[in-house]
Amino acid sequence: MSTYEEEHNTNRAGAGQDARRDLRSQIHDMYQENGTSNLLLQLLSQIIPESLQEELLQDQKEGCPEHFVDSLPRVNQSKLSDEESCSICCCNYKEDKYPLVVELPHCSHRFDLECVAVWLSKSTSCPLCRDDVLSHKPKIDVSTVEVEDDWGMYG
Amino acid sequence: MASLPKRIIKETERLVSDPVPGITAIPHEENLRYFQVTVEGPEQSPYENGVFNLELFLPDDYPMEAPKVRFLTKIYHPNIDRLGRICLDVLKNNWSPALQIRTVLLSVQALLASPNPNDPLANDVAEEWLQNEDNAIAKAREWTNMYASKQ
Amino acid sequence: MSKIPRSFRLLEELEKGEKGMGPESCSYGLADNDDITMTHWNGTILGPPHSNHENRIYFVALVCGEEYPDQPPQIRFLSKINLPCVNQTTGDVQASSFNTLKNWKRSYTMETLLLDLRKEMALPANKKLPQPAEGTTF
């Protein structure tokens, strides 16, 4: 099973950190060598790491794509029991006249859409069982693949 | 102050009405997101008979973000540093919004029962723990008597 | 916005200082790593360019009291410096003549204070003030 990072080929946080370290040391060297006109370098050393920091912070927000959250199946009100509550806000679903409850793929854990959408915007794991919600891709129908593989039998 | 989310009110009520054995958590009157916490050292651990003071704060993004927790009582433990900071996965990368104040504090108590010197925060303590466990446990017991004894 | 308690605020500042995430023109850290109350801090300010402070490093001591960050820390220069807001016998930064201390806000940090002192050094009125010999202390 591959992680989100591997699939999307993003290890940008690490790359950003390296770039920042290199830049810092380059600036540091230039600063050491060039004692006379270092105003620009001082400014750079202040400005660049901070802007890179912002990029770094953005990179850490690795959640589910919006369309994934939008496409989560809704749970019909009739299927909700009276005691069922959302484990994120701790509120009973039926306290709301029109509850908007969704079910996660595979593990089928239920949450208020409003609650789980915030969580999934920065994470890909189910709050209750930590199942990676993005790892369940539509499966290829294995039975047909096997039949086709079996051509040798007849050969 | 902005109104307190319903979840925090519910959690606080339950901490009072149905407390976890060996753990107390009381919100400060002037800041209902800030809790004064005590955790009893688990039986059969070097922290047995100790009562440890901690502080816990629920940041604005709670429960999307983990509570912040810190020991106020000095403790000799490989995963707790000299400033009382705790190295515990559920407080960092393994946080989930389905966890609660009570589950977090239970995890802290469990950490006292099973120190993990292979993932240290206090390096000197972890080293002692790995090289001379008997000594380390004796020292943890000594610190418990010295700093965390029940009054 | 909820009010972050003193200790967690100071831990945030400590982590920022430890990881070197702040600007390079100042630094700060705990004076005593065992101090669970996190009261005493050390800081440095790199003198601003094009001033008599250029290439100098100034050492300061900060005290974050019980009321921090509702109240500002006390801050004192250890390195000798000639600045209008610094008491010339004790090195204390005087709140009455330093705006950041006088109009302190809860959102300000020790970093704010150090960077604003650096700006103070670079003010046209201050940047050419004669300075004591480098390395002398109050």
Count of helix runs of chain A: 7
Q: How many strands in all of chain B?
A: 4
Shape of chain B: globular
Question: What's the β-strand tally of chain A?
Answer: 3
Gyration radius of chain A (Cα, Å) is 25 Å
Distance between the termini of chain A: 35 Å
State the major sheet of chain A.
Answer: 3 strands, antiparallel
* Strand-residue proportion of chain A: 5-15%
Helix-strand pattern of chain B: HEEEEHHH
Number of self-contained structural domains of chain A: 2
Please report the two chains with the greatest interface, counting residues with C-beta closer than 8 angstroms to the partner's C-beta.
B-C, 18 and 14 residues
> Spans of chain A of 5+ residues with little confidence (pLDDT < 50)?
1-16, 33-37, 144-155
How large is the share of residues in beta strands of chain B?
Answer: 15-25%
Q: Which overall shape of chain A is indicated by the principal axes computed on the Cα atoms?
A: globular
Query: How is the biggest beta sheet of chain B arranged?
Result: 4 strands, antiparallel
Q: Tell me the number of helical segments of chain B per DSSP (H or I, 4 or more residues long).
A: 4
By CATH, the topology of chain B is Ubiquitin Conjugating Enzyme
Oligomer: heterotrimer
CATH superfamily of the largest domain in chain A: Zinc/RING finger domain, C3HC4 (zinc finger)
Structural class of chain B, by secondary structure, is alpha+beta
Provide the descriptors you would attach to this structure in a database record.
heterotrimer, A: 155 residues, mainly alpha, Herpes Virus-1, 2 domains, 47% helix, globular, disordered C terminus, B: alpha+beta, Ubiquitin Conjugating Enzyme
